[in-house]
Amino acid sequence: MHLKESLLVALDTLWSHKLRSFLTLLGIIVSIWTLVAVVSLVQGVNQYVGDKIAGLGSNSVNVSQFSLDDVTDQKRFREAQKRNKPITLSEYQYLRAHATLAQAVAAEVQRQTGTTLKAGNHSMTDVVVAGDTANSVALAQFTIVAGRFLSETDESHDAPVAFIGADLATKLYPGTNPIGQQLNIDGHNFLVIGQASVMGNVFGQSQDSFVEIPIGVYRGMYGTRDSIGVNVKAPSALLLPAVTDQVRVLMRNVRHLHYADKDTFGIIGADSLMNLWHQLTGVIAGVMVGVSFVFLVVGGIVIMNIMLAAVTERTREVGIRKALGARRKDILSQFLVESAVLSTVGGAMGIGLAYGFTLVAGAVTPLPFSLPWLAVLAAFVISTSVGLFFGIYPAQKAAKLDPITALRAET
Amino acid sequence: MATTPLVAAPVSDSLAAAPGKDVVIQTRDLWKIYQMGTEQVAALRGVSIEIHRNEYVAIMGPSGSGKSTLMNLIGCLDSPTKGQYWLNHQLVSELDDDALAHIRNHEIGFVFQTFNLLARATALHNVELPLVYAGVAAAQRADRALEALRKVDLVDRKLHRPNELSGGQRQRVAIARALINNPSILLADEPTGNLDSTTSNDIMALMDKLWDLGNTIVLVTHEPDISEFAHRVIYIRDGQVARDEVTKRGRERSGQTPLSARGQAEPTRGRPGA
Question: In this complex, do A323 and B97 lie within 8 Å of one another by their Cβ atoms?
Answer without folding.
Answer: no
